[in-house]
Amino acid sequence: MKLAKKFTAAALIAAMALIAGCGGGADKKAAAPSGEKVTLKMAAHLPASHPLVKAMNDLKAKTAEKSGGTVDIQIYPAGQLFNDKNMNDALISGGIDMGLNTVGRWASIVPTMDVFDLPFLFPTYEKIGKAVDGGLGAKLGEQLEKKGVRPLIWADYGFVQFANNKKAIKSPEDFAGLKIRGYSKYSAETIKALGASSVTMGSGEVYMGIQRGTIDGQTSGTTAMRDRKMYEVTKYLTITNHGCPEFLLAINDKSYAKLNDAQKKALNDAAKEVQDAIRANAKNEDIKAMNDLKAKGMDVYVVPESELQKWRDATKATWDQFVKENGKIGQELIDICIK
Fold first, then answer.
1. For the domain 38-113+124-156+246-284, what is the CATH superfamily, name and number?
2. Regarding beta strands 247-252 and 98-102, do their DSSP bridges make them parallel or antiparallel, or are they unpaired?
3. Cβ atoms 161, 222 nearer than 8 A
4. Alpha helices in 229-316 (DSSP H)
5. Domain limits, CATH 3.40.190.170, in the chain
6. What is the C-alpha separation between 259 and 256, in angstroms, rounded?
7. What are the C-alpha distances in Å from 140 to residues 89, 91, 106, 261?
8. Distance between CA 189 and CA 170 in Å, rounded?
9. Within a 10 A sphere around the Cβ of 20, how many other Cβ atoms?
């Protein structure tokens, strides 16, 4: 009898251990065992030829090398999986593992992301990276992590400019009567402050929108203008360097949790290397793209430094609006950027 009771107790303990092993924490994805391969799908809406997408290919190669081939990043550019408008929701829900999107599209989820779109906030390319590393990236990253995603790369997209097919823009007064596409809330507010009408649409709709006359032009980076062949539908390019919409490569927390410690280190180290390379190349990529657009027949006007103050004055109210809407944290972010 005692032997039977001992046997029954032992069996019960074993069964409980088995159940715990199979079902305990079933809602969490366990990290991959050492040597096991993990595949991560990345969405991007930029064309495959864009410098930032090429940088993501570098990330793929570096991560594979550093992880001994156990982390495979599959990249889907040009909106093949998700466009810029629906990508972030998919990333938060786990519909995609990784997403490369402009910070302007994150602002509806994390409003303080709009800080990057405040006009004339950064005077040089170097100041952008300095601000991100000086506390801006950390403060914004904390808010992103509350949504279940984590930043991997703050990718310098470069500065944005204005292009249209109606007339040369050489001063804020020239915007009167134009319909310009904005890519985010504060790019739209900047356009309105300059005297034009703002129309918000997805990046993939802009070419057709200009071609059909729905809009007269857009604000965007020269690299995207070139790679999306905007020179076919716009004639006039005005170089203002008024905004710097960083692109953010983020990963879903649950997808990140699938990686073991060695794989996480491989991904993080590769991301740091790629981020540094993007920063180092941003200015040259912008200049090259501007020259490519000029060679394609666009009329290029570079606003002289001596005339930029009136552009700053015309758009400064957007800074005040940002602080009013975001309070103390909004002013803190601006202070980080301008110090």
1. Bacterial extracellular solute-binding protein, family 7 (3.40.190.170)
2. antiparallel
3. yes
4. 253-257, 261-295, 308-315
5. 38-113+124-156+246-284, 160-244+291-338
6. 6
7. 17, 17, 11, 24
8. 19
9. 10
Task: Tokens for 309, please give them.
Answer: 């103050």
Nearest to 143 by CA among 271, 331, 333: 333
- CATH architecture designation of domain 160-244+291-338: 3-Layer(aba) Sandwich (3.40)
Q: What is the pTM of this model?
A: 0.84
Give the model confidence (pLDDT) of 47-91 as tens digits: 999 999 999 999 999 999 999 999 999 999 999 999 999 999 999
- The whole-angstrom separation of Cα 21 and Cα 83 is 40
213: left (phi over 0), alpha (psi -120 to 50) or beta: left
Q: CA triplet 223, 229, 233: central angle to 5 degrees?
A: 120
Distances (CA, A) of 42 to 31, 83, 155, 218: 19, 12, 15, 27
Q: Which amino acid is at 280?
A: A
Q: At what angle do helices 308-315 and 185-193 cross, to 10 degrees?
A: 110
Residues 6+ apart with CB under 8 A from 20: none
Which residues make Cβ contacts (< 8 Å) with residue 63, sequence separation at least 6? 71, 73, 266, 267, 270
Q: What is the pLDDT of residues 162-182, one digit of tens each?
A: 999 999 999 999 999 999 999
Q: Which two tokens stand for residue 298?
A: 């666009």
Beta strands in 67-200, from DSSP E residues, in sequence order:
71-76, 98-102, 149-155, 160-164, 179-182, 197-200
Instruction: Give the whole-angstrom CA distance, residue 208 versus residue 130.
Output: 37
List, as one string, the DSSP characters of 18-82: HHHHHHTTTTSPPPPPTT--EEEEEEE-S-TTSHHHHHHHHHHHHHHHHTTT-EEEEEE-TTSS-
